[in-house]
Amino acid sequence: xxxxxxxxxxxxxxxxxxxxxxxxxxxxxxxxxxxxxxxxxxxxxxxxxxxxxxxxxxxxxxxxxxxxxxxxxxxxxxxxxxxxxxxxxxxxxxxxxxxxxxxxxxxxxxxxxxxxxxxxxxxxxxxxxxxxxxxxxxxxxxxxxxxxxxxxxxxxxxxxxxxxxxxxxxxxxxxxxxxxxxxxxxxxxxxxxxxxxxxxxxxxxxxxxxxxxxxxxxxxxxxxxxxxxxxxxxxxxxxxxxxxxxxxxxxxxxxxxxxxxxxxxxxxxxxxxxxxxxxxxxxxxxxxxxxxxxxxxxxxxxxxxxxxxxxxxxxxxxxxxxxxxxxxxxxxxxxxxxxxxxxxxxxxxxxxxxxxxxxxxxxxxxxxxxxxxxxxxxxxxxxxxxxxxxxxxxxxxxxxxxxxxxxxxxxxxxxxxxxxxxxxxxxxxxxxxxxxxxxxxxxxxxxxxxxxxxxxxxxxxxxxxxxxxxxxxxxxxxxxxxx
Length: 483
What we know:
Layout: H1 11-42, H2 50-80, H3 88-111, H4 134-166, H5 169-172, H6 175-179, H7 189-220, H8 228-250, H9 252-262, H10 270-285, H11 299-312, H12 315-328, H13 337-359, H14 362-368, H15 373-402, H16 408-433, H17 448-480
Helix pairs in contact: 1-2, 1-3, 1-15, 1-17, 2-3, 2-4, 2-8, 2-15, 3-4, 4-7, 7-8, 7-10, 9-12, 9-13, 10-11, 10-12, 12-13, 13-15, 13-16, 15-16, 15-17, 16-17
């Protein structure tokens, strides 16, 4: 059953969580502003030199991936701490390492000119053809490593606390109830989700640290190299698992907060437990759908990537979607900003996955993968899914501590965010359907109308998020005060 009691965090722990949330919302807003600059440039409404365009694209990409993880970590830690004993010092250390990594990354991009995209595909960092220095590439890789070390400490602490409380991985995942007699003593959904996230992200971050270190050494010792295809596999394993885990952490807000509105528990049923166990396995082997255009990949890996792409979109997503509808149906809940954002987030996550599954079909992928179709699908489930969950959690904390109810400005911002977010994703998808390429700084005249319409929707999303940001920050002092 989801926790429905007010948080029992110490003042220090609550303020640490609030620091996470404040940093998350501010950085999300800033990254959206950078994204708007990119769209305006492609729309020929703003003149960005190509080198600056790709620097901004790099910062926007790595910034959104990193901040998604940080926001998800805040949600996971806040609710998981109500079931197991977590270390507040590790929570703070993760934030400090994250901010230190951000300094390195921003310096590498905007001072050093690094523009190798968030994927830093080997051997690109070491072969910039004069676009950036070796030091800039090293600073970027070190920054990502620092962020990774902080998250690794975070997940190790969570995994240890869960194992101490539940006595083993299988028990934390509810396997006795899944494969044996369902005695009603399965772990809460938050614990199950947190266990899955901890397992997959410990693996992804360790793999990421290996390839980051190899790339870093290669900058100064070119003879120390790795097969480029192997490097690409390691990078996409790391990145794909990490961003998926960010969504799996943020969805904990749905499991925990909606029951407070509906008065109905979110049960850890056998179907729920099976879905999360299946997802834990599939998310580790689905990433080859990003490599379908790499002819040198083993055929079996590409086939696996396609098949698992179809299957992996179903278990957790379907359970969450059906569970949300069931818990809301005829519950009599009062709709406000928090409940509205949570409901929107499940729609955004579910609808955004559908274009991703389409793109994972090999015959479609060969045509669509290097078009704006791909930014369309991930903007869909990140903006309307993940960001909506993060905002819902932030305003849930504000409501808990201040009792302030939603007003007309909240409603206006919500509908602006929802409609414009749908329009933003839709214009990306439509442009991709008509073959507009992604990652191009300069667009042909026939592509510009898509860019201009997309820029309008992007600007509206940014305005809504800025309003949300200001309203949360103005309440931050009241939220952080002792009870």
